Amino acid sequence: MNYPSRPTWAEIDLLALKHNLQQAVSFCSAPQRILAVVKADAYGHGAIQVTRALQSYGVHDFAVATLEEALELRHAGISDNLLVFGSCFPGQEGAFLQHNLMPTLLDKETALRLNTEALRQKLQLKVHLKVDSGMGRVGFLPQQLQDFLPQLSQLDGLVIEGFMSHLACADELRSPVTADQQERFRTMLERVRQAGIEPREIHLNNSAGLSGWECPECTLSRPGIMLYGGLPGVDFSAKLDLQPVMHLRSCIAQLRQLPAGSGISYGHCYHAHTDMQVAVLPIGYADGYNRLFSNCGQGILRGQKIPVIGRVCMDWIMLDVSTLSNVRVGDCVTLLGEADGLSILGDDWAEQLDTISYEVFCGVGSRVPRRYLPEI
Ligand SMILES: Cc1ncc(COP(=O)(O)O)c(C=O)c1O
Fold this sequence. Notes:
The chain is an alpha/beta fold. The protein folds into two domains: 14-230, Alpha-Beta Barrel (TIM Barrel), CATH 3.20.20.10; 246-344, Lyase, Ornithine Decarboxylase, Chain A, domain 1 (Beta Barrel), CATH 2.40.37. Helix content is 28%, strand content 24%. It contains eleven helices and 21 strands. It has helices spanning 14-26, 39-44, 47-56, 67-75, 93-98, 108-120, 142-152, 176-194, 207-212, 346-353, 357-362, and strands spanning 8-13, 33-34, 36-37, 61-64, 81-84, 102-105, 125-130, 158-164, 201-203, 220-221, 246-251, 254-258, 263-264, 270-271, 276-281, 298-301, 304-309, 317-320, 332-339, 342-344, 370-373. The strands form five sheets. Strands 3-4-5-6-7-8-9 form a seven-stranded parallel β-sheet. Residues 37, 85, 166, 206-208, 222-226, 232 line the site of pyridoxal-5'-phosphate.
């Protein structure tokens, strides 16, 4: 049966995505290419649609975090280069080979498992070798790499297609850590080459690295957040001209005239100080509208920013629209993104919630339908 959904949705502006991609490209020195990071459902924007849009803008290298995310793209018919950041866990080797997916090689044991399976199937698997140049998370440490290189170079089931590392502090433009990491990255690359391995792809930079630090030896850059219009760090607003891609909107379900003194929502943590007109929207924390916005969120309606009042519920929020005379049930309120020349950005939410815009976008609930503009 066909019926309209609850009037709450996330509009995904694919032209803004294109604009942000062009920004990323402008920081790449030719012939560097973009390896677009579309993990976590393209940071909540919809991996299949975002990947297809990026393909149409000329990107043909993508990265996700898990095998499942990669298979979602493969099942949607996306056959471009696909790197899985999150390694290959025991038992997943066959799926990587079957679907031509490139795992990130993080340790010796995984390398040996993958090699065994590839040889058993009389195939070769392309992998990207990841080194820990100072991130302190995953990847070969310098000594581990040094010890493993003689054996790695003999693993005939593997093709070391890429050499990569990840930056820990590139979002702080003056951090000395990034220069140290670059230095270690180059030294480890040199060691790999001395062992007779010549990776076709070399990559280090995320959005912050790409827009703040040069990597002349790199063939790829791996932007994520900047593609979606989020700043990689507070210092980047002057450097980057980004457009928000996601606009979270919800339409007024009820308009209520409440007398002075009325308590509003759970806990009555807000009381009407005068007679008030209150708009109720069908969106709540189950949709990613954080409960911390109780009594302090904002929405854009008819060219004004209007305050959220009372507790944010799982499925509803209330806004004070007393200052507006011509509000109607069905009017659309923008809670994240742009409307009427005003904006409430992912970075604004992040500041209010003491987090980063990455978490804001990923947190927009899966029950919120994504609508793509222009339609794809
Ligand atoms: C290995 C790796 N590369 C690139 C990125 C993209 O980073 P950003 O979204 O900061 O551009 C990520 C994201 O966390 C990552 O884990």
